[in-house]
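Bug #77: duplicate submission created two jobs. Keeping one. Sequence:
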Amino acid sequence: MSFTKGTVYLLRRYLFISIGVVITAVALDLFLIPNSVIDGGIIGIALILNFITGAPFGILILLCNLPFLFFGYKHIGKNFFISSSYAIALLAIVEFPLKKIGPFVTDPLLATVFGGLLLGAGVGTIIRNGGALDGTEILGILLTRKIPYSVGEFVMFFNLFIFGWAGFVLGPEKAMYSIITYYIASKAIDIVIQGLDETKAVIIISDEYEELGEAIRLRLGRSITKLHGRGGYSDNEKDVIYVVVTRLEISKLKQIAHDIDPSAFLTIMNTQETHGATFKSAIH
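Kept job's structure:
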């Protein structure tokens, strides 16, 4: 039985979403919920409702996310809707058997740190593969079209409300643990989504661009791209060098630029992701 590339990609995507869901469920049912610690967003709301009502967390997160899934379908697309629906439904299923195992740790600090790391790893894996467990950012995208705040600011205000509510329901100590969990989970999500190979995009403006480009190729092993530019003050035309390097190569790149042209102007930017066999092979 042969599979097309599209089918293999789809199977791989849903496999990783499933892995992300299992990791998330472990974080919630074996670390966070038994220790009365929550996360932010819709997951946080579902957890608070779970503590108040005793209703299954999986069912609550499914119900809480339904309106956001609907808006996601309308404004983001069918693939997002299907992937997110699958992830949320699978979480509701996986959560039931895990609840019977009991807490992995009973120390709130250990539960906060390791639960936050696992939660971020699970949610980040789901997001990286085109799904979501939390509709907060969808709501933010829709509302920020009508209110003078960014999506990030809306999510922050939304979570402040949730952690304030958690302070009343669970007590101030648990609310503070929950804020730590949210911070750890958000950092873990960033690492999973962006990857561990942090890269930098560098733009170099120099009159010695020919020699500089050759030196980067020979001494750093990186290919460059020449962009045609024109000086805003002098109106002189010159080539601008664009190169992507790892964070560990930044220092060496600066040294190369300084050796060839001490007056070279460098702009160093963070990159979200890099793709391409040439770049990866240069790293490894």
